[in-house]
Amino acid sequence: MSYLRKIEWDIIPDNKPKVIRNCPKCGKRTLFLNTEKFRVNANKNLIDIWLIYQCSKCKSTWNMTLYERIKPRDINHEVYEKFLANDKELVDTYGFDISLHNRNKAELLWDSIGYHVNSQEIEFSEKENEQEIKISCKYPIQLRVDKLLSQQLNVSRSQIKKIYQNGLIYSSQEEKLLNSKVKDGMKIYLKCSMEQLSQLNGE
Ligand SMILES: [Zn+2]
């Protein structure tokens, strides 16, 4: 008989990704930091909006284009106000957007952003022997599934691999689950209890 315990892991990045791009003043590729500020320019009924980055070496700024010469009616008034107020969530929406940065010839750097996980018990079972972990991850932080599982379950990565090879960790969505990146809405199943896991770790 299977007793399912349901957990949700909400993965929250600790920092904004940095950007690598060519700095004209430094004359080479440097690291740029997200200033978390927008610049909005309204001119003759046309609006430009940028997200401002700053070179970590020479401090010169780079405005990354978000909208170019759009008409006021093409932008929601509420959203426009958020740009003016440097709304934090909006900063993240654009600061984590991979294709937007590609279009602006800037490369996002994921190594040093860090993350933390808010874990929430959705359904509890006292005799649990199977667990469903639902991942909520709003931003594509390029985190590997095996790294997340190892850190969250407090089991080494090689143990995670062993458990996976024994068919005790699986997901209906991913074939090479452990090597894949964490995605929003992903569900991972563990066919063992937390107690069995901690025993495995002591081996
Ligand atoms: Zn520079």
**So how many helices?**
6
Helix content: 10-25%
Strand content bin: 35-45%
Multimeric organization = single chain
Number of domains: 2
Helix-strand string: EEEEEHHHEEEHHEEH
pLDDT under 50 segments (min length 5)? Answer: none
By secondary-structure content and strand pairing, the structural class works out as alpha+beta
Q: Please state how the strands of the largest beta sheet are arranged side by side.
A: 7-1-8-10-9
Q: For the terminal residues, how far apart are their CA atoms?
A: 27 Å
| General shape | elongated
Enumerate the distinct ligands: zinc ion
Mean pLDDT: 91
Brief summary of the model shown:
The chain has 203 residues and is α+β, with helices and mostly antiparallel strands. It has helices at residues 77-84, 88-95, 98-103, 145-153, 157-165, 194-202; strands at 4-13, 18-23, 28-43, 46-55, 61-70, 107-109, 115-123, 130-136, 169-170, 187-190.
Please characterize this protein's 3D structure.
This protein has 203 residues and is an alpha+beta fold. The chain has 2 domains: 4-14 and 114-202, no CATH class; 18-109, no CATH class. Helices cover 24% and strands 38% of the residues. The protein contains 6 helices and 10 strands. It has helices spanning 77-84, 88-95, 98-103, 145-153, 157-165, 194-202; strands spanning 4-13, 18-23, 28-43, 46-55, 61-70, 107-109, 115-123, 130-136, 169-170, 187-190. A hairpin with a 5-residue loop joins strand 4 (46-55) and strand 5. It starts with a strand and ends with a helix. 18% of the residues are buried. Zinc ion (ZN) binds next to loops.
